[in-house]
Design brief:
globular
């Protein structure tokens, strides 16, 4: 699993041509496992792509994101996006 999560994290920062299929496949495969879906949110929030902020805005509206679930908020917003310093501090 460590290899799969590491691969997903790397792919999330690559071109959409590579990242979107990997993101979707990981989600479809591991959807029943809530801990892994937290990691799925985290990998996308830490992406170094130029559209990372837009991805996070879409993920907040994802059906599996719940603002009242502390681990989801932590994975996506706090440890994910807020620790993605290059994207967080981007002037645009």
């Amino acid at each position: 699993m460590t290899d799969r999560l590491s691969s997903l994290s790397i792919l999330c920062s690559l071109d959409k041509k590579y990242s979107i299929p990997a993101i979707e496949e990981f989600y479809q495969t591991w959807n029943p496992e809530q801990l892994l879906i937290n990691k799925w949110f985290l990998a996308q929030a830490r992406s170094s792509r130029e559209d990372a902020f837009e991805m996070v805005k879409k993920l907040v509206k994802h059906k599996d994101f719940n603002i009242w679930a502390p681990q989801r908020v932590y994975s996506l917003l706090i440890f994910g996006f807020c620790m993605n310093l290059p994207v967080l501090h981007d002037i645009s």
